[in-house]
Amino acid sequence: MSKAVLIDLTRCIGCRGCQIACKEWNERKARRTSFHGDYTNPTALNSDCYTHIRFHEQEKNGVPVWSFVKNQCLHCKEPACVSVCPVTALKKTEAGPVVYRYDRCIGCRYCMVACPFHIPKYEWESALPWVQKCSFCSERIKDGMIPACIKVCPTGTMFYEEYDKVVAEAKNRLNRSPAKYVKHIYGLEEAGGTSWMYISGVPFEDLGFKMNIPVAPLPDLTWEYVSHVLPLFGITFVAGLGAWVITRRHANMNKEG
Amino acid sequence: MNDTKEIKMMTPFTMVLLLAMALGFVVAIYRLVNGLGAATNLNDDFPWGLWIGFDLLGGVAMAAGGFIIAGTVYLLNWKKYKPIVRPAVLTAFLGYLMAVISLFFDLGQPHRIWHPAFMWQYHSVMWIVAMHVMFYTTTLAVEFSPMVFERLKMHGLLKFINGIMMGVVLFGVMLSVLHQSSLGALYLIVAEKLSPLWYNSLIPYFFLVSAVAMGLNMVSLESIISSKAFKHKPHMDILQGLARGSIITLGLYLIMKVIYLLQGPGFAAIFNGSMEANLYLLEVGGGVVVPLVLLLGTNVKQGVNGLLTVNILVVAGVLLNRMNIAVFGLYGYGKSMGGSYFPSVMEFLLTLAIVALGIFLFKVAAKYLALFPEAEMQT
Lengths: 257, 379
Hints:
The structure holds two protein chains of two kinds. By secondary structure, chain A is α+β, with helices and mostly antiparallel strands. Chain A folds into two domains: 3-77 and 133-218, Alpha-Beta Plaits, CATH 3.30.70.20; 227-256. Chain A contains eight helices and nine strands. Chain A has helices spanning 17-26, 80-84, 110-114, 138-142, 148-152, 163-176, 219-226, 229-256; strands at residues 3-8, 52-60, 63-71, 90-92, 98-100, 121-122, 131-132, 158-162, 196-199. In chain A, strand 6 and strand 7 (131-132) form a beta hairpin. The mean pLDDT of chain A is 93. By secondary structure, chain B is mostly helical. In chain B, 72% of the residues lie in helices and 0% in strands. In chain B, helix 3 (50-62) runs antiparallel to helix 5, helix 5 (85-106) packs antiparallel against helix 14 and helix 7 (125-151) packs antiparallel against helix 8. Classes of the chains: A alpha+beta, B mainly alpha. At the A-B interface, helix 2, helix 3, strand 6, helix 7 and helix 8 of A face helix 1, helix 2, helix 4, helix 7 and helix 8 of B.
């Protein structure tokens, strides 16, 4: 069975414990950052930072309201990155995580170009760089533990269970408190569905979520062409061979005549 | 003897080429030792840049003349074009060489460039592209090899290669049709990222048709330049034939462009003054419409210089198209993620060096191999 996570943004208090736990568990080094006007730190994911909390400040009825958004790989059910990787360095495991296999990667960075959620990051400063992203703590899951970020979360923002149970729980919460949540489960349909999903009290478009992600799995866009490659190859072969046979016969006839 | 063997190697132009190559060599070493971040301005918001857009996509498009002319002569038995088969195949080989070299330096793990041959992933367009590059570069080397075997007087091998040439050319045509379109197919998956001015579901076939236009004009361009540089008469009937081919291809390309512009973002989108819109106007106006108008005017096709102007416009237009898709069309997305990109000096230097290497090798081949057998016979 496949594991999934529901992030209930109404529960997050922005403590960033998940951010620290992730860094510790994955042994990523700290980078010096500087103040830039809001509390999101670092401002974007990077090869040493698999997850971070985005801070969004809005005004509601004249009072400032904070929203905190945990950002990490969404572990698509049919990931674009997996479909585009020429050497199967990225793989969707049966347990749910999309994992990266160092020993195969050639560093073409097509995964970074293809990912609709802008997740895979590169070790630009290294001479022989790797792609880096959240692995859904796949090694911990294998050993029966829960992901590091979920383990430390003090408010139970993340609900970790089998995929079907997670979807049911999300629907249940929306039905139970329709006034509290906007009526949308982000990740239920986006990019063909993701293993990490979000529910929120604030419209997703106000929280930096990408709302123009195709609903169909992204690999389908490419498969439409790829599935035509062999027929196209065959057609070109027959056309070329046919042209050769016809023009040769024509030339021979001219010679004899 | 003959004209081409009197080509002087030690000219100021050759010196400039050698200097560019030397600078590029230094950059290449620096890139390998210090990594992509140190040598390029690529970043997490712009993972692909000049080397992919210009060298790889552009280099492969430039190579399209090879399969078109080889197919025309060997498969369609159109003997009129025989005199330009060799330069066309050589250009194709050099175009692919350019693509392979730039790809090597663009890969984060260049020593693993062989991985796709053993780690198959046929869902990936990049895998298809990688396999094509491997097979087609080999195919082009075989198509080109008779020139070398002639020079080395290896008659047995020469006879063998000429015997299998038809099969080799057919294989080359099959690979090329697929490869040119697959490069476009790389961008099918960035549906919501690439500007709608360039994104549509037929992007593979846009790449194929524009590559044919580029190939025809590239072959014409180098025929004219070689005839000027190596002082032999250009074959006007061949050049005019290529020009007729350009009219058909560019016409088809323009129709496709217009239909998909109207279906997609609409006509107004190209006049909204944005960077993307202006680049689109420059690309389609300068690289498709103006050349078409010039070619359809009666006078241009008569003169070599008129044709040369058209060739340069079309080649530049398709190169811009590749850059538009690889960099500028994705610029809005990268910017919305907080990033920016302009190629570093080192990126420009390596690109320049690879172009210089191509021109230099063409010159060497023209001097030492029978690249223009017909022209030599004329003298």
